[in-house]
Amino acid sequence: MENIALIESFSEFKDDKLIDRVTLMAILEDVFRNALKKKYGSDDNFDIIINPDKGDMEIWRRRVIVADEDLDFENEEITLTEARKIEPDFEIGEEVSEEVKLIDLGRRAILALRQNLISKIHEHDNTNLYKQFKDLIGDIYTAEVHHVRPRAVILVDDEGNEIVLPKEKQIPSDFFRKGDNVRGIIENVELKGNKPQIIMSRTSEKFLEKLFEQEIPEVFDGLITIKGVVRIPGEKAKVAVDSYDDRIDPVGACVGMKGSRIHGIVRELGNENIDVINYTTNTQLFITRALSPAKVSSIKINEETKRADVFLKLEEVSKAIGRGGHNIKLAGLLTGYELDVIREGNIAEEEDDVELTEFSDEIEAWVIEEFAKIGLDTARSILKQDVNDLVRRTDLEEETILDVIRILKEEFED
């Protein structure tokens, strides 16, 4: 088999792997030099001439002519008798160049060449893939669900690259079927052996930030800047925004008329509740805004410990804490302060109030816990609430809430 025929048989990898011919030829030269070293001990006296346009290559071995009895290094030397079979006028000391046909390497060596070539091309592809996705870290990417596994969803992009969306990087309400298109950010690229593993995330704060850039033109154009993003994926998020142009209302621009602009983002995140607030360097004001919808009476800040005592009227406490404590937790993360709620109210009433845990004989522990999640841990704090509001903010049935209210009222009537 001629060199060009062998090259063409190897070149089929070019089409399969979308590798350009020049790169393929460079890989081929490296592979063949390794084969020459293995067969002859050295490739120093070999010239490999590659013609990428024709897809051909030639291998030439250079040897010095010596007297027949002086042959010591067969790879680097050739006897005068053998040299004159090539050219009858050769003399001792001259250099002879002979073409080496690939077939001369032997069938086993050619099979090894082919296997080595496959390995080198895979290595080249993996290096390129790693570099390509390393540059995409932090960007939104879309891929199609190929396989759903218990611990991860395997996605495939338009170029056939495999992307992993681990269970812990999925929003709790996410549900995927084969063929679904999934959006997330490329969070990391890890090398597993020689193969890169591309990790996607839908729970990252960066994903929410990038969605704002995609959906809100003013953010994309830089007229509105995102100063901070915190999330409890699928539940609640807070985004602090600012604008250097006083004519722009950053919150209004992000939310849109009747929530029209932010609606698509909320839907993408499984109906995650998103609070957009105006950023300010005034710490007290920023904490106040972060605790919305609660109305804060006053704040006492300790800069050394990064703690803040937030004073609230009794009816505002549950709003500040939020369902499951999400609101106060996110406000603390956004502002960088640990927030402690201090209740304000009628002193006589507070002294007369009773901790909800005191009713553990009559009210089940899990019911008490449900009220505590929204900041209601005393009898009077519950009695001041509207029943319909309690049904909406807890996972309790109306009948259960009415039963609790009855028990608490009996305590104060007594």
UniProtKB/TrEMBL annotation:
<dbReference type="Pfam" id="PF26594">
    <property type="entry name" value="KH_NusA_2nd"/>
</dbReference>
<dbReference type="GO" id="GO:0003723">
    <property type="term" value="F:RNA binding"/>
</dbReference>
<dbReference type="GO" id="GO:0006353">
    <property type="term" value="P:DNA-templated transcription termination"/>
</dbReference>
<comment type="similarity">
    <text>Belongs to the NusA family.</text>
</comment>
<keyword id="KW-0806">Transcription termination</keyword>
<dbReference type="InterPro" id="IPR012340">
    <property type="entry name" value="NA-bd_OB-fold"/>
</dbReference>
<feature type="domain" description="Transcription factor NusA first KH">
    <location>
        <begin position="202"/>
        <end position="279"/>
    </location>
</feature>
<dbReference type="InterPro" id="IPR013735">
    <property type="entry name" value="TF_NusA_N"/>
</dbReference>
<dbReference type="Pfam" id="PF13184">
    <property type="entry name" value="KH_NusA_1st"/>
</dbReference>
<dbReference type="InterPro" id="IPR009019">
    <property type="entry name" value="KH_sf_prok-type"/>
</dbReference>
<dbReference type="Pfam" id="PF08529">
    <property type="entry name" value="NusA_N"/>
</dbReference>
<dbReference type="GO" id="GO:0031564">
    <property type="term" value="P:transcription antitermination"/>
</dbReference>
<dbReference type="InterPro" id="IPR030842">
    <property type="entry name" value="TF_NusA_bacterial"/>
</dbReference>
<keyword id="KW-0804">Transcription</keyword>
<feature type="domain" description="Transcription factor NusA N-terminal">
    <location>
        <begin position="6"/>
        <end position="125"/>
    </location>
</feature>
<dbReference type="GO" id="GO:0005829">
    <property type="term" value="C:cytosol"/>
</dbReference>
<dbReference type="InterPro" id="IPR010213">
    <property type="entry name" value="TF_NusA"/>
</dbReference>
<comment type="subunit">
    <text>Monomer. Binds directly to the core enzyme of the DNA-dependent RNA polymerase and to nascent RNA.</text>
</comment>
<dbReference type="InterPro" id="IPR025249">
    <property type="entry name" value="TF_NusA_KH_1st"/>
</dbReference>
<keyword id="KW-0889">Transcription antitermination</keyword>
<dbReference type="GO" id="GO:0003700">
    <property type="term" value="F:DNA-binding transcription factor activity"/>
</dbReference>
<protein>
    <recommendedName>
        <fullName>Transcription termination/antitermination protein NusA</fullName>
    </recommendedName>
</protein>
<feature type="domain" description="NusA-like second KH">
    <location>
        <begin position="284"/>
        <end position="346"/>
    </location>
</feature>
<keyword id="KW-0963">Cytoplasm</keyword>
<dbReference type="InterPro" id="IPR036555">
    <property type="entry name" value="NusA_N_sf"/>
</dbReference>
<dbReference type="InterPro" id="IPR058582">
    <property type="entry name" value="KH_NusA_2nd"/>
</dbReference>
<comment type="function">
    <text>Participates in both transcription termination and antitermination.</text>
</comment>
<keyword id="KW-0805">Transcription regulation</keyword>
<dbReference type="InterPro" id="IPR015946">
    <property type="entry name" value="KH_dom-like_a/b"/>
</dbReference>
<keyword id="KW-0694">RNA-binding</keyword>
